[in-house]
Design goal:
The chain is of the alpha/beta class. Helices cover 33% and strands 27% of the residues. The longest helix has 32 residues. It is elongated.
């Protein structure tokens, strides 16, 4: 009957092909829409400290303006780019006013190089350093659509306002599940600055770079712009796992992002048919200070609550990301019925054993990336994935038989050696 079903599927595919040839207008309607151009927002620190003259004999502000001119000349036509400033307008000493000083200098869109360069040329080192506020503003500049989004922050210091905390803002942006990446560039080699800018970048999957020369700054920004203009990566879909398997969100093959608090369990439901192999991987990132000794567990559980297979990983404070994966096969079964059997319900459970000092914030939870794939099951599965824990007796039996023969051979050799010793 399996052969009959496959023959029927082939005939259906042939009919669909003929229909596509007879009705070209319908086929054209199903063509995928064009990919949206990537969006980039350059966030430039224009605070008073940018007047220091320690970059190739000129001020940090001049070096940044020269680098921006080089970048604007090299922006690909298919990139939508904007510029936002922080600390550019208020020169006073009132912290409350200075910490609200962030504005959009050039809107995100097709670049008019003359207008953008003219806007950058007017900047003078002025005020405070509200990095957290500027990141929120940049996220709003990039809002809308499904394009890939990137913020490039160029600064010579850490946030001078405290609220909102830049690392917390970065985590909030990452928790929105819109795949917004923040890259940071530091113009001063300072441990405090490096720590804060690294925290911002790591929370969103971006990078931190320390630069001390104009050509380095220009080269790095252009590299990040080109990276965004390349064929975009798969954008993870935001999904919210459930605390129980029964009401878990259903997912299909793809890449998903979620947030999981310390010690929490999250469930995601998958439908797997006979003749398919389930493959899943999970990564949990430590985007904040955590205690040493932690782990992540990924389990596949049947709809009846039976564990099918599991994968785990553990660390001791030497890595920021833990990953694990699993595979499970439902072999294709011979049946006398023409009706396809109902799919199996499998729940993927993600749990972690992270902990943190009391001063560390628990929300939003740790970033989780879950990848799911369903492929054709092998015709003659020969690995453990084909058996799962439900058929672990096969492996146990093989080990028992091997142990029995090894014991018999060892005993025979021992008796032979004793007999030879006695005879001599």
């Amino acid at each position: 009957m399996i052969t009959k079903r496959r023959l029927a599927a082939g005939l259906c595919g042939l009919a669909a092909t003929l229909a596509a040839g007879l009705f070209p207008a319908s086929a054209a309607a199903d063509e995928p829409t064009a990919q949206e151009p990537p969006k980039i927002d350059l966030v430039l620190d224009v605070s008073g400290s940018m007047s220091a003259r320690d970059v190739d004999g000129k001020s940090r502000m001049s070096a940044a303006q020269q680098a921006f001119n080089d970048v604007l000349d090299a922006v690909p036509d298919d990139v939508r780019l904007g510029i936002r400033t922080l600390g550019a307008t208020y020169p006073g000493k009132d912290m409350k006013t200075g910490c609200l000083d962030s504005k959009q200098l050039y809107p995100v869109g097709p670049v008019n190089r003359t207008e953008a360069k003219a806007a950058v040329a007017t900047l003078r080192p002025t005020g405070w350093t509200p990095i957290g506020l500027a990141l929120r503003g940049a996220a709003q500049d990039l809002a809308g659509g499904d394009a890939t989004r990137r913020i490039v922050l160029i600064t010579d210091g850490e946030d001078s306002c405290g609220q909102p905390d830049p690392c917390d803002v970065a985590r909030e942006l990452a928790a929105q599940g819109t795949h917004l990446v923040v890259d940071t560039l530091g113009l001063v080699a300072n441990d405090k600055i490096r720590k804060q800018l690294s925290c911002i970048a790591e929370a969103t999957g971006g990078t931190y770079t320390s630069v001390q020369h104009t050509d380095q700054l220009s080269s790095r920004i252009k590299q990040l712009v080109r990276r965004s203009a390349q064929t975009p990566p798969v954008v993870p879909k935001a999904v919210q796992g459930s605390a129980q398997c029964g009401n878990a969100a259903g997912i299909t093959p793809g890449v998903y992002t979620d947030r999981e608090e310390f010690g929490q369990h999250r469930y995601y439901k998958v439908a797997v048919t006979d003749g398919q192999e389930l493959r899943a991987t999970v990564s949990v990132g430590a985007d904040r200070a955590v205690n040493a000794d932690y782990g992540v567990l990924l389990r596949a559980v049947s709809g009846e609550g039976q564990e099918l297979v599991r994968g785990s990983d553990a660390g001791s404070g030497r890595t920021d990301v833990l990953s694990s994966g699993l595979r499970y096969v439902y072999p294709e079964k011979d049946t006398d019925s023409d009706d396809a059997p109902p799919p199996h319900t499998v729940c993927l459970e993600v749990s972690n054993s992270f902990s943190a000092p009391d001063a560390v914030k628990r929300t939003p939870g740790l970033p989780v990336e879950l990848t799911l794939d369903l492929v054709d099951a092998p015709d003659e599965a020969a690995d453990v994935a084909a058996f799962g824990l439900g058929r672990g007796w096969v492996l146990l039996g093989a080990l028992a038989v091997t142990g029995l023969f090894a014991g018999l051979i060892w005993g025979w050799l021992a008796r032979w050696r004793v007999a030879v010793w006695r005879s001599n």
